[in-house]
Design a protein that fits this description.
Blueprint: H1 6-30, H2 35-62, H3 70-81, H4 92-98, H5 102-126, H6 130-156
């Protein structure tokens, strides 16, 4: 099984955040007439932009040297990236671009954020700069909370 380098995994993290930014920007525009949804999706898009900067800087800081124990983490990352979430027939982004109602968007976004958290936890295990990845993980957790609160508010109506 071919393994990924740490730089490739960090590039995947950057691309994941770019996908999130694109998705949330699209949703903010799609739901521009609903201030609550528009505001949250704009806030999430902006947060994804800041994560792109963080992971890009981390990628440059690490250079080309592989962390200790990288082989095992790399195999896990390959299996994860090849899963249905990223490359399978039920890719999250495919569904996200076809969503037409706010609650569907919120539920898909929650799923996307949860899968992203799993990916970042695996990345965290591989790097010595755990505090940097921890910051992003904590922000991703906040995203899930924001989405969950909006979902509860919407359901209670």
């Amino acid at each position: 099984m071919e393994s990924y380098s740490i730089r490739e995994v960090l590039e995947m993290a950057v691309r994941t955040e770019m996908l999130g930014n694109s998705y949330y920007t699209e949703l903010a525009a799609k739901f521009k007439n609903d201030s609550e949804f528009n505001s949250l999706f704009t806030k999430l898009a902006d947060a994804e932009k800041s994560h792109i900067v963080v992971f890009t800087a981390l990628r440059e800081k690490l250079g080309n040297e592989e962390p200790e124990g990288w082989q095992e983490v790399s195999e896990y990352m390959r299996a994860y990236v090849e899963s249905a979430f990223f490359l399978g027939k039920d890719k999250a982004m495919l569904h996200m671009t076809n969503v037409t109602e706010p609650m569907g968007a919120v539920l898909l976004a929650m799923g996307f954020e949860k899968e992203t958290l799993l990916f970042f936890h695996a990345l965290r295990d591989a790097v010595t700069e755990k505090n940097i990845v921890d910051e992003v993980i904590n922000e991703e957790k906040k995203h899930i909370l924001w989405l969950s609160k909006l979902k509860e508010h919407y359901v209670r109506g």
